[in-house]
C-alpha cells in the first residue's frame, strides 16, 4: 500500500514536471514562431535583395559577355582574315598548279596524239609490211616446199646409196676374209715350195762347189805338171838356144805369158768359187727369211688394193652420212624458219585486222586524262585539309 502511494506521488510529481515542461515548450514554441515570422520577413527581404542583385549581376554579365564577344570576334576576324589570305594564296597556288597540270595534260595529250598518229602510221606500215611479208612468205613457202621435197628425195637417195655401200662393204669384208684365208694357204704352200726349191738349190750349189773345188785341185795338179813340162822344155830350149840372147828373151817372155794365163785362170776360178759361196749364203738367208714368191706378192698387192678400195668406200659412206646430217640439219632449220614465219604472219594479221587496237588507244587516252584530273583533285583536297 505504501509502495503504491509512493508510486502515485512519483507519478504525480512526474505529471507536474511534465506539465511544466509542456508549458515551457509552448512558450518556446510561441517564441520560435515569432522568430520564424521575423526570419520569414528577413528572408523575403533578402530574396528581394537577391533578385535585385541578380538583375544587376545579369546586366553586368551581359555587358562583360558583350565585351568578351567583341574581343573574341575581333580575334576571330583577324584569324579569319589571315586564313582567308592563306586560302587565297593556296587557291592561287592551286590554280597555278592546275594551270601547270592542264598545260602538262595538254602537252601529254598532244604527245599522246602524236604517238597515236605515229602508231597508226606504223600500223599502216606494218600492214603494208605484213602484206609484203605475206607475199614473200608465200613465195618462200613455195620455195621451201620445193626444197623440202628435194631434200626428201636426196635423203632417200643418200639412204639408198648408204645401204648399197653398206652391202658392198659387207661383200668386200666377205671377199677379204676369203682372200685372207686363200692368202694364208698360198703363203704356206709358197713357203714350203720355196723351202724345197732352196734346199735343192743349196744341194746343187754344194755339189757345184765341190765340183769346182775338185776342178781347182785338178787344175793345180795340171798347173804343177805343166810347170814341170815347161821347165823341162825351157831347159831343153835353153840348151838348144843358149848361144842366142834374143831367143832366150823370147822364151822368157812366153814363159811369163803362160804363167800369167795360168794365174788368171786360177783367179777366175777363185772368183767363181767365191761368187758361188755368196749365192749359197744368200739362198740360205732367203730360206731363213722364208720370203714369199711372186704369186704371194701379187696376192698381197691385190689384198692391199681391195683394202684401199674398201677404205675409200667407207670414207665415201662417211662423207655421204655427213652430207645427209647436214641436209637433215638444214631441213630442220628451214622447218623452224617456216613455222616462225607463219607465226609472225599470224600475229601481224591479228594486229592488223583487230579493230580493237584503235579503241584501246582512245581508251588509254581517256584513262590518262581521268588519272590527271583525279591527281589534281586529290592534291587540291589535301592542301585544303592541311590549311583548315
From TrEMBL:
Keyword Coiled coil: yes
Coiled-coil zones: 36-97, 188-229, 259-323
Protein keywords: Coiled coil
Lineage top rank: taxon: Eukaryota
Coiled coil keyword on record: yes
Protein's name in the database: Uncharacterized protein
Amino acid at each position: 500500500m505504501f509502495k503504491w502511494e509512493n508510486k502515485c506521488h512519483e507519478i504525480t510529481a512526474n505529471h507536474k514536471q511534465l506539465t511544466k515542461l509542456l508549458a515551457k515548450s509552448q512558450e518556446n514554441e510561441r517564441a520560435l514562431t515569432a522568430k520564424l515570422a521575423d526570419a520569414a520577413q528577413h528572408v523575403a527581404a533578402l530574396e528581394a535583395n537577391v533578385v535585385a542583385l541578380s538583375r544587376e549581376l545579369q546586366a553586368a554579365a551581359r555587358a562583360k559577355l558583350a565585351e568578351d564577344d567583341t574581343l573574341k570576334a575581333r580575334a576571330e576576324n583577324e584569324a579569319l582574315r589571315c586564313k582567308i589570305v592563306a586560302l587565297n594564296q593556296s587557291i592561287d597556288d592551286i590554280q597555278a598548279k592546275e594551270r601547270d597540270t592542264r598545260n602538262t595534260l595538254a602537252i601529254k595529250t598532244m604527245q599522246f596524239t602524236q604517238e597515236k598518229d605515229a602508231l597508226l602510221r606504223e600500223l599502216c606500215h606494218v600492214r603494208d609490211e605484213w602484206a609484203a611479208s605475206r607475199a614473200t612468205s608465200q613465195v618462200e613457202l613455195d620455195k621451201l616446199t620445193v626444197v623440202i621435197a628435194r631434200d626428201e628425195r636426196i635423203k632417200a637417195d643418200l639412204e639408198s646409196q648408204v645401204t648399197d655401200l653398206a652391202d658392198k662393204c659387207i661383200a668386200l669384208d666377205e671377199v677379204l676374209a676369203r682372200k685372207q684365208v686363200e692368202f694364208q694357204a698360198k703363203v704356206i704352200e709358197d713357203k714350203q715350195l720355196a723351202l724345197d726349191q732352196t734346199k735343192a738349190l743349196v744341194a746343187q750349189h754344194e755339189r757345184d762347189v765341190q765340183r769346182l773345188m775338185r776342178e781347182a785341185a785338178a787344175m793345180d795338179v795340171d798347173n804343177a805338171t805343166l810347170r814341170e813340162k815347161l821347165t823341162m822344155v825351157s831347159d831343153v830350149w835353153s840348151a838348144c838356144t843358149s848361144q842366142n840372147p834374143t831367143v832366150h828373151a823370147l822364151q822368157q817372155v812366153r814363159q811369163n805369158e803362160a804363167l800369167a794365163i795360168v794365174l788368171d785362170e786360177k783367179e777366175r776360178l777363185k772368183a767363181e768359187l767365191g761368187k758361188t759361196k755368196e749365192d749359197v749364203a744368200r739362198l740360205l738367208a732367203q730360206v731363213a727369211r722364208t720370203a714369199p714368191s711372186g704369186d704371194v706378192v701379187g696376192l698381197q698387192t691385190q689384198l692391199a688394193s681391195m683394202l684401199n678400195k674398201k677404205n675409200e668406200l667407207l670414207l665415201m659412206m662417211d662423207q655421204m652420212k655427213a652430207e645427209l646430217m647436214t641436209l637433215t640439219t638444214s631441213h630442220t632449220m628451214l622447218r623452224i624458219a617456216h613455222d616462225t614465219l607463219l607465226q609472225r604472219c599470224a600475229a601481224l594479221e591479228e594486229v592488223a585486222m583487230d579493230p580493237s587496237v584503235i579503241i584501246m588507244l582512245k581508251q588509254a587516252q581517256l584513262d590518262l586524262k581521268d588519272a590527271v584530273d583525279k591527281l589534281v583533285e586529290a592534291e587540291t583536297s589535301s592542301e585544303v585539309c592541311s590549311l583548315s
